[in-house]
Structures are given as structure tokens and as C-alpha cells.
Write a structure and sequence with these properties.
Blueprint lengths: L1 H11 L5 H4 L5 H15 L6 H8 L2 H8 L14 H6 L11
Helix pairs in contact: 1-3
Amino acid sequence: GAINDLDKLRLRSELPLISDTSPGINKEEILLLIERERRSELFTENHRWYDLIRTGQADVVMAAVKTSWQATDILFPLPESELLINPLLQPQNPGY
């Protein structure tokens, strides 16, 4: 399962194994460990932003590091040229 997969990564990195340090770990704690492991393993591959979007954490995390962050900042504007070509794309994303 997930603990075995995490342990494989941690063994390779010579870190303490989850199965040794947290034998009674629950589902929520495992999910947090997976998020932390992804952040460590994939930090140079630009996965963090997509993980934040997928897990619904983008607003909380970004507001903590960027005081001007607004919930509408999560979306990019649709290019005006595309809106002119295809009116079905209307309305423009919120905040633009």
C-alpha cells in the first residue's frame, strides 16, 4: 500500500521508515505524508502548483505567502483574441 511505497522512497534516501516510526498511522496522516513526500521528490518539476489546485489548498497556501493574493488569481485570463474568435468562451474568467 501507500506506506510501503513511501518506505521505498525513504529507504532510498536513507530516511527513517514510516512503518518503523508511525505504525498506527491513519489515512489523513498518510495523505499528509504523501503530500510532503511529493513536495520533496518533485520540487524541481513544477508539480506543487498543480497539487495545490487539485487538493483545493491553493488559496490558503498562496494567501499566506502573497498578501495581495485573491481567489480569482487561481485562473489565467482568457486571451482576448480567443474570445473574439469563439464567443462561446464568454464570460472572461473572474478577476479579468
